[in-house]
Amino acid sequence: MHAAALISPARLWSAGEVLVRSGPVPSAPGVYGWHFTKTPSHELPAGRLLYVGIAPRHMANRKSTQNLRKRVRYHFRGNAAGSTLRLTLGCLLGLELRRVGSGKRMTFGKAGEAELSRWMAEYARVCWVEHPEPWTLESELITRLDLPLNLDQNRHNGFHSRLTEMRAQARRRARELPIGT
Predict the structure, then answer these.
(1) Shortest CA distance to 141 belongs to which of 155, 132, 159, 153?
(2) Of 2, 43, 102, 138, which shows the fewest CB atoms inside 10 Å?
(3) How far is the C-alpha of 25 from the C-alpha of 2, rounded, in Å?
(4) What pTM did the predictor assign?
(5) Backbone dihedral region for residue 30 (phi beyond 0: left; psi -120 to 50: alpha; all else: beta)
């Protein structure tokens, strides 16, 4: 079962391993799972699966170019505007969310995103399972597993309301601040 391969993977991979040119993440569709050796909140347990994502997202009318390699690497080195995982982790770590560019996108700014990338390099570990239609697994995994960092389809999780409010507060504060860099 795919859940078992994500809950108790044979191997977890670090940012340093994933981000090398010939890294181990395949350019294929699938489901990825995030584990943390230290969590961004005392309310969350370390050393177990806390978040799952899929690549590509299901899009009925167009072809996605996303795959496991692109998505996992983006989570490790992208920004909060393009990664709900990074947005969640940054909010839990107390980083300041800011409007950037034209003011519509929100990230933690250059310094905050760099700090988040360093934190993830130290504490985040990832695993994955290839699957030709990962969207067919996503709902099942979120329903069956305790994944406190997933928000979509996860209202039943005990951490959902706290995380939703924390992210909403960060967005409200960001709208009150001048556009950053």
Answers:
(1) 153
(2) 102
(3) 17
(4) 0.95
(5) left
Domain boundaries, the chain: 2-79+109-157
The torsion of the CA quartet 129, 131, 133, 136, rounded to 10 degrees, works out to -50
pLDDT band of residue 65 (cuts 50, 70, 90) is confident
**Each residue's pLDDT tens digit, 106-162:** 999 999 999 999 999 999 999 999 999 999 999 999 999 999 999 999 999 999 999
* Token pair belonging to 141: 């995994």
Structure tokens at 129: 């399972």
**Which DSSP helix (H) or strand (E) runs through 72?**
helix 68-77
Chain segment 3-59, per-residue pLDDT in tens: 999 999 999 999 999 999 989 999 999 999 999 999 999 999 999 999 999 999 876
CA distance 33 to 73: 13
> Are the CB atoms for 88 and 163 separated by under 8 Å?
yes
* C-alpha dist (Å) from residue 147 to 1, 96, 154: 17, 24, 8
**Which of the 8 DSSP states describes residue 52?**
E
